[in-house]
Amino acid sequence: MAARRTDNPAVIATRGRMIGMWEAGMPLPAIAHELGVSKQTVWRWVQRWQEEGVLMTKPKSGRPKVTSRQEEQQIITTARKRPMLSSYQITHHHQLPHHPRTTRRRLHEGGIHCFVPAVKETLSPANKEARLGFALQYLPMEPEFWETTIFTDEKVFTSVESPARQCWRPKNTRYQPENICNIKRSGRKSTSFWGWMWGYGPGELVKIEGRFNGQQYIEVLEELLLPSVRAMAIPHPLPIKFVHDNSSIHRSKVVQQWLNEHPELEVFDWPTKGCDINPIENLWAIMCREWDVGDDRTEAGIERKAREVWESVRRRPNVCSNLVKSIPSRLEEVISAFGGWSSY
């Protein structure tokens, strides 16, 4: 448990300085100004020193704790081993006689606080092995290697704006109109997009018509990716380092055959469940945070807003640059986690 502030050696030393200055003849207001405390505080400790000759804080009277040292240690240990348990579950697990509020207080005193947990998919041993192998293989690469890599992905945007993640408000005002995050579910529209980015900014964004399949993906690669990458990023005949995930569409036979016929595309063997390594996922997240289609909740409105936000990121080239520069850190975290999730 953390020591009380009043038992802190630095606090006791400050009181000693008060007495030393007073015994040296310094006026009380000057002592208070020098030490940044009130005159009443200086006078109280001078009196205490004269009467009792001590500078320690007196023990305070009051109701004793309902938990023993052993129970407090049990609470802290259980929370560290099983952090997803609620205070009620921890209290019930140890059959403690007090209210779960007491358990929460002991956790706070022990420096353990409640936050919203990160939500990630479960990684199998095979997933972790593949992620770790990928990280070890590409960690030695220089930053320039990633800056000239083309990262691609698909994303679905809807006419419903993302709910607020937090709300600063006074207590007992949760349901006041200004503090409610209103979500319109009726008439919701959704539209899929495909896009690419590299270390110098976003590339192109295209709306996906209908249900996406392998043949459509080939058309996107042939009619959009190759021309736009050649024009904006990697000139002919340089090879194009190319990233896409392991979705069933990307792994379909027709797509694999097309890729084999285009050796200029050097496709990474990206690990399954490697979304936290791919910086374009963070680009989508940035777009979601800035997402608000307004009153036009049609497919045309979604497309207009998606392109508007995409172009706003293009005017901020440091966004993509910083995301790509973070890849070595992502790989290091994957290695440190033995193939587990990184913080990205």
UniProtKB/TrEMBL annotation:
Taxonomic source organism: Petrolisthes manimaculis
Entries under InterPro entries matching the protein: Homeodomain-like_sf (IPR009057), RNaseH_sf (IPR036397), Tc1-like_DDE_dom (IPR038717), Transpos_IS630-like (IPR047655), Transposase_5 (IPR052338), Transposase_Tc1-like (IPR002492), WH-like_DNA-bd_sf (IPR036388)
Protein name according to UniProt: Transposase
UniProt GO cellular component terms: nucleus
Signal peptide (from-to): none
GO molecular function, one term: DNA binding
Subcellular location: Nucleus
Biological process according to GO: DNA integration; DNA transposition
Domain annotation Tc1-like transposase DDE: ranges: 149-291
